[in-house]
Amino acid sequence: MPVWELLSVELLTAFLGLGLLVLGLLVPKGQKRGLGYLAALGLVGIAALAFALREAQGVVWEGYIIDPFGTYFKLLFLFAAILTCVSSFEYIGRLGNGEGEYYALIILSTLGMMILASAGELITLYLGLELMTISFCILATYRRGDMKSAEAGIKYIILGALSSAILLYGLSLLYGSTGSTLIKDISLVVNSGGVTPLMVVGMIFLLGGFAFKMAAVPFHMWAPDVYEGAPTPVTAFLSVASKAAAFAAFLRVFFVALGDSHPLWAEVIVALTILSVVVGNLVAIPQKNIKRLLAYSSISQAGYLLLGIVAFSTLGVGAILYHSMLYVFANMGAFMVATVFYNADKSDEIQDYAGLARRSPLLAAVMLFSLLSLAGIPPLAGFVSKFYLFMAVIDQGYIWLAILAVLMSMVSVYYYLQVVKVMYLGDPPPGRPAIEVPLGVQIALACSLAVLFLFGIYPTPLTNYAFSSAAAFFH
Question: Distance between CA 305 and CA 320 in Å, rounded?
């Protein structure tokens, strides 16, 4: 397969992002709404191409790997970007500035994630990480004049720069101890010569850098404030896609390059898993703001995904892939509801969701089923994905860890149902009209719901795809 065909998904994504940037300058101010539709349609076309090339395999310039594992994650990023663009039409339109730049940054951050997922070389991996991070730094501050948005941006820039520096230092130590930036060459050095003290220090820095991007405890301190202050569609995209990108890069580095050193870092991952699952779920209970509640929920979901890394098996990687895809639709569904509600009432406080079931039955239903899927309640898809994650760790003898994760899932049901209680049992404020949901958002919400029910009742097609991609990763 020629190089241009292997790289077609990335090339088209880059052209789309840069094209929107140029169009944003050329299109008159009152006619920029069409840029959002162009971005969404362009991403749908690229997703269709990525799906057609899902079995493609090859290595470009030695350090860029095209394989089913990377393509699976690219599809995930594209689905998240499409839903983000659709939910942004009204939100960004009301801000009244920078629509072209906004959609271009969404697409360029998606390109950064794609590079992260396919990077077989450390410098390429870092470039992808920085493209994603810098785009999100700008997007987090997009509500100009809003103090919370400015605070979110500053915190993300400072802490993001710190974590990137830690990660880069770890990568440099890995290069210094092995003499190569290619992941396959590093794995050969580790397999033949063992692990040196310098390499161990590098691993510690890498674990810290990746854990920050995953929002795993205790590297989660940025997430609640950034999630609360950033524009709601950006928060949704950040919570699902950047987390998945971090897991994709982590799997490349630690499972391929450092696989033989697994006993050295395995216990650290177990500790991160326990802290993320416990702290994320317990601290979510007293939250009064829907975005902060979903931020701590996202931290706990990072803990559940880490179960797949603890398992260190094909089943574990397949479970990560499966859960990540369904997490996109469940979390994006909840955040799309929060976006529409904010457009109508200018509030993210949970108490203001009182009587939402009467003001908009569709929004209340999507929020209900999205939260139940995040909690892992059957027959929704979240139940199946968590089941695979729990089975993966039980298969490796971590029965106690699976029991802890199940107990924490029960805790999550409590704080999710607090939101449901307000929506269905609370009385709407007097004089508040019904909430109108734009047609595009209605379609996106319906698609999210359909995915959650379809793969909860009939998970076989996606499980087959996820586990075949995981098997290809190990070969």
Answer: 6
